[in-house]
Structure formats: structure tokens, C-alpha cells
Design brief:
67% of the residues lie in helices and 3% in strands. A hairpin with a 2-residue loop joins strand 1 and strand 2. The chain has four helices and two strands; from the N terminus they run H-E-E-H-H-H. Helix 1 crosses helix 2 and helix 1 packs parallel to helix 3.
Length: 146
């Protein structure tokens, strides 16, 4: 009896993934069938567990395509969780939010630059303290010899 090839096994995993999303789509009427989400992205671990496939398979290009299609069809969310209606913001508010996000990004960049500068200055201070210590020891040694 021969073992199935890796390609056959991979195809079976992809078929299980398709069946999983089909089942979610069929249950969607009761708001239970939506793609699991974590940190704003599809929760690959939860999807792999639900589909009964190894998690590594879900990161392959073919599986990612299937997951992306399912997200477009079904949307994000957690099972048994009501979907939240999106709110259209007035243009002025959206511009203000975008402006604030840009200010935050600039501030984060400045913080990074300042952290690097502090690190450099602390390293220089340690070198100067080391030099001062060496010089004071040398002076003490020379004065004791005289």
C-alpha cells in the first residue's frame, strides 16, 4: 500500500479549508458564521483549527487566496458576535483623524531618533567616565611615587 503524495495531502487540506468556509457561509444567516479575527486580521490559528488542517498549510499562497476570498465574502468577526455597523464620518472629521494619525507617526519617529541619541550620549558618557577614572588613578599613582 503506497502513501499519498505530499501534493495529494496538500490538496486535501485545501479542500478541507474550502469546506470550512462553505460551512461558515451556510451558518451566516444566524450571524454565527464569520471569519475569526485577531488584531484586525484573519486569525490563521483559529481558521486552521476550525478547518482541521495544520496551521502551516494556512500560510501557503493557495490557502491565503482562499482565506482572502472568504474574508471578502463573509467579513471579519468572532463567531456568535453581532456585526457592528460602520459609521460614515463627515469629511472634516475624517481629515482631522488622518491629520492626528500623521502627527502620531511623526512623533513616534522623533521618539525613535531621540532614543538613539540618548543611547549614543550614554555610551559617550561611559567612555568619558572611564577616562576620568583612568586619569585620576594615574595622577594618584604618580603623586605616590614622588
Amino acid at each position: 500500500m503506497s502513501r499519498p503524495s505530499n501534493q495529494d495531502i496538500g490538496q486535501k487540506h485545501l479542500e478541507r479549508l474550502r469546506r470550512y468556509f462553505k460551512a461558515l457561509e451556510d451558518r451566516r444567516e444566524d450571524q454565527a458564521g464569520v471569519v475569526p479575527v485577531r488584531n484586525g486580521q484573519a486569525n490563521i490559528s483559529a481558521i486552521a483549527l476550525g478547518a482541521g488542517i495544520p496551521r502551516q498549510v494556512a500560510y501557503r499562497d493557495e490557502a491565503q487566496t482562499i482565506i482572502a476570498d472568504a474574508v471578502l465574502r463573509l467579513g471579519f468577526g468572532m463567531p456568535n458576535q453581532q456585526r457592528v455597523e460602520t459609521i460614515d464620518l463627515p469629511i472634516s472629521v475624517a481629515r482631522h483623524v488622518r491629520s492626528l494619525e500623521q502627527q502620531v507617526a511623526v512623533a513616534k519617529a522623533e521618539i525613535g531618533v531621540l532614543r538613539d541619541e540618548v543611547h549614543t550620549l550614554r555610551a559617550r558618557l561611559r567612555r568619558f567616565e572611564h577616562l576620568v577614572g583612568q586619569m585620576s588613578r594615574d595622577l594618584a599613582f604618580r603623586s605616590s611615587r614622588c
